[in-house]
Design brief:
The complex is a heterodimer of chains A (113) and B (110).
Chain A: E1 4-7, E2 10-13, E3 19-25, E4 31-37, E5 44-50, E6 53-56, E7 64-67, E8 73-78, E9 87-94, E10 103-104, E11 108-112
Parallel strand pairs in A: 2-11
Antiparallel strand pairs in A: 1-3, 3-8, 4-5, 4-9, 5-6, 7-8, 9-10, 9-11
Chain B: E1 4-7, E2 10-14, E3 19-25, E4 29-37, E5 43-48, E6 52-56, E7 59-64, E8 69-74, E9 83-91, E10 99-100, E11 104-109
Parallel strand pairs in B: 2-11
Antiparallel strand pairs in B: 1-3, 3-8, 4-5, 4-9, 6-7, 7-8, 9-10, 9-11
The chains are: A mainly beta (113), B mainly beta (110).
């Protein structure tokens, strides 16, 4: 059974039109992460939540925001998608922030028209 | 920040062959994971191995943390093993960030 669930698997949006990607987990983990993976590159961390505490990576563009309304759900909002934001977006969870493996969802592949 | 290098970058195998993938990292780590990303983009967790040796079927992994490297062994390779293999590390004192290596693209042919 899937433990980190991302919806949808594929998302198409228009240039400049806001889009939201969702992630849910059944593991009751404290930490939820969002990674961006562009074509032929390694995943790169955008930000993470430790419980309700939001931690942004220094080089994450302001165009990217996140919400975590409860333990189970986390959302990635892209306010004005540009062509360069086309990528695979991966959600991950871990029990806490130290000495614990991260568990990844299947990802959402975002295309920008 | 920590640097993570993987070798080889590309590998082509005949089905049934064995291979060793290497991951070198530039600083001490408290988390190391090996992943297989399949052609559909799914990132499959293979091993959580900050130190020591683990085996799971045809796959095994060894991390020598004091020498800052990890190895992934694939035996009797199958076409379904094709994809990209990533190692990812969390640097000691480096917060929650999992830094991914450069990846090894593996293709297994009949």
């Amino acid at each position: 059974d899937a433990m980190v669930i991302q919806n949808p698997r594929y998302q198409v949006t228009q240039f400049g039109k806001p889009v939201t990607l969702s992630c849910s987990q059944t593991l009751n983990h404290n930490v939820m992460y969002w990674y961006q993976q562009k074509s032929s590159q390694a995943p790169k961390l955008l930000f993470h939540y430790y419980d309700k505490d939001f931690n942004n990576e220094a080089d994450t563009p302001d165009n990217f925001q996140s919400r975590r309304p409860n333990t189970s759900f986390c959302f990635l909002d892209i306010r004005s998608p540009g062509l360069g934001d086309a990528a695979m977006y991966l959600c991950a969870t871990s029990r806490d922030s130290s000495y614990q493996p991260q568990h990844f969802g299947d990802g959402t592949r975002l295309s920008i028209l | 920040g920590i640097q993570v290098e993987q070798s080889p970058p590309d590998l082509i195998l005949q089905e049934g062959a064995n291979s060793t993938l290497r991951c070198n990292f530039s600083d001490s780590v408290n988390n190391l994971q090996w992943f297989h990303q399949n052609p559909w983009g799914q990132l499959i967790n293979l091993f959580y191995i900050p130190s020591g040796t683990k085996q799971n079927g045809r796959l095994s992994a060894t991390t020598v943390a004091t020498e800052r490297y990890s190895l992934l062994y694939i035996s009797s390779s199958q076409t379904t093993d094709s994809g990209v293999y990533f190692c990812a590390v969390r640097a000691t004192g480096g917060g929650n960030k999992l830094t991914f290596g450069t990846g090894t693209q593996l293709k297994v042919e009949l």
